Amino acid sequence: MNENEYIKRKRAIALRYDRESAPVVKAKGRGYVAHNIIRQAIEADLPVLEDQSLVQLLSKLEINEEVPEDLYHAVAEVFAFVYNLDKEYRKKKQETFSCVDPLKKDMLEKNKCPEGGTHNGKESKFS
After folding, report:
1. Dihedral, CA atoms, 52, 59, 36, 63, nearest 10 degrees?
2. Which residue, 26, 44, 110, 117, could crosslink 126 as a Cys pair with Cβ 3.0–4.6 Å?
3. Residue 126 lies in a domain
4. Distance of CA 119 to the CA centre of its chain
5. In terms of pTM, does the model score above 0.90?
6. Which residues lie within the region annotated Disordered (predicted)?
7. When comparing pLDDT for 107 and 70, which is higher?
8. pLDDT one-digit tens code per residue, 7-30
């Protein structure tokens, strides 16, 4: 299967969850739309998890529709997995910061890097 065929078969669902309500479908798509949803999530440093079975079930929902109760358990497992990944990521990020001098740490925290190095895939430079 070439890349074009792969993209055409791709599906993606973006969910939003706050503790006060059920998870909600915020975006969904197939093909190039799915490819763009995934690309934007990666660029925004959001976790991306691949689960074709769950995507197939969630793709039946409309945008801004709440996830039905019968899918809560499956979606909760995804959010728990993502939460644990995020916790580990933040821990490693904090460990990295402890090795950086205070000025550079402040710049990283503000998402501003001096020219030339890399941060979130963008070129910046540290001396």
Report:
1. -150
2. 117
3. no
4. 17
5. no
6. 108-127
7. 70
8. 788 999 999 988 889 999 999 999
